[in-house]
Specification:
2 strands; 54 residues; 1 helix; alpha+beta; two-stranded antiparallel ribbon
């Protein structure tokens, strides 16, 4: 079974919203995350759920 729905966050730098940056730093663990604001939000949801959004 394949999932053909759009990915929930950008997969390439050219898919970012204008003004967003591909590489961002997690405000909780300072790890560099790719995928812009959406990539950091996904990281926080998975890795730091107890911290909540930044």
């Amino acid at each position: 079974m394949t999932d053909d729905r759009p990915h929930p966050h950008p997969l390439r730098p050219q898919d970012l919203e204008p003004g967003d940056h591909w590489a961002r730093t997690c405000p909780h663990c300072h790890t560099v995350i790719q995928g812009g604001r959406a990539g950091v939000a996904a990281h926080i949801t998975v890795v730091h759920p107890e911290e909540g959004p930044a």
